[in-house]
Amino acid sequence: MATKIVVLGGSFGGLTTAFEIKRNLTRDVEITVVSDLESFVFIPSLPWIAMGWRKPQDITLPLKEVLEPKGINFIHDEAKGVDADSSKVVTSSKELYYDYLVIATGPALVFSAVQGLGPIEGYTECIFTLEQALRCNEAWNRFLEDPGPVVVGSVQGVSCFGPPYEYVFEIDSELRKRRLRHKVPITFVTSEPYVGHFGMGGLANSRRIMEDTFSEREIRVISNMAIEEFTPDEVRLKDGTKLPYKLAMFAPPMAGVQAVAHLGNPKGFIPVDEHYRHKDYKNIFSVGVAVAMAPPEQTPVPTGLPKTGYMTVKMAKQAAKAIVADITGKNPPEAIQLDAVCLMDMGKTAALMKADPVLPPRQEAILKEGIHYKWLKAAFERYFLWKIKRGLTQLP
């Protein structure tokens, strides 16, 4: 009888895990990917969607067309819950029993953390999903007709700092290109203790580089700051400062998604061992943003540890190896050391960021800026989409 493996999530972690298991267990395994999204979205390009530099069709692939030719089932449905004792996933329309479950759901975005935060019930834009990025692009186009102050940043508790950095640099570059920069005061507000911290204690000389970059671009920085509330036209900081805006984009904190939060810590993130196996349920694995990982230090304003796509792919490959070893009766794989590699867009240029390992002390920490990293970022977008379309899992 075939071993049933259910994967929750159709992004970096879910697809990599599914492809890797299928490649190593071609027979006697039934893999089903469940996702509430119909398409894979190349998330690193969402800031480019928000700027109008990409269209949805440029960065998406239909999951059914990607998975089913590889012999992997796809169910477009929302997971509503997991009964870990019965090894059962409950979706909106059915129940799925599993021998192994992989939680690769990504996060829930907690806009309720700050009053007025978010694009639906609040007043700020966000670029963490395709729908949000498209909505942000509409706000950007309206803004260009009547420009004014811009405020971009991250509220307290945020762990994913990269998109606000990219967005603020892209706005600066685009406004200069349009000869509108002199009409737009830009302020960057972050819960990080300093710019270039990125929720991971900084990277070598990242603080100096980022401080110099913001200064050269005449972007005001307010770091180590919590947000009191957002109104329709002001960002109100905890210290009483009020920042007027015509356009505001802020990253929210994250938590575990509701369907699996009961399996996690108080924030709903899943506790795992070195093989990304749940610490209490040995047939449940988790990878990516859904995994519980402590930040490297306690900061004056709370911040979290980022989990990049590169990190997620490495987690997924490790989890897949552990599942294959379990099924075939082999020894589990050796524990891996997580490192992080990221390409951060900076408008006209981009930066290569590397942390090895993710948490300090490190063997290697790099932040380098250059136009060639901008070209590399665009090339990597095309390469990764090509790779996913073909079911490949190797890292670059």
Quick rundown:
The chain is an alpha/beta fold and 396 residues long.
Could you explain the architecture of this structure?
With 396 residues, the protein is α/β, with parallel strands linked by helices. The chain has 2 domains: 3-109 and 254-337, FAD/NAD(P)-binding domain (3-Layer(bba) Sandwich); 111-253, FAD/NAD(P)-binding domain (3-Layer(bba) Sandwich), CATH 3.50.50.60. Helix content is 27%, strand content 24%. The chain has helices at 12-24, 46-51, 63-67, 130-145, 162-177, 206-216, 309-328, 371-389; strands at residues 3-8, 29-35, 39-41, 60-62, 73-76, 79-83, 88-91, 95-97, 100-103, 107-109, 150-154, 186-189, 220-222, 227-230, 234-237, 242-244, 247-251, 254-256, 284-286, 340-345, 350-356, 364-370. The strands form 7 sheets. The protein has a 5-stranded parallel beta sheet. The protein is globular. The mean pLDDT is 97.
What are its keywords?
396 residues; alpha/beta; FAD/NAD(P)-binding domain; 2 domains; 5-stranded parallel β-sheet; 4-stranded parallel β-sheet; 8 helices; 27% helix; 24% strand
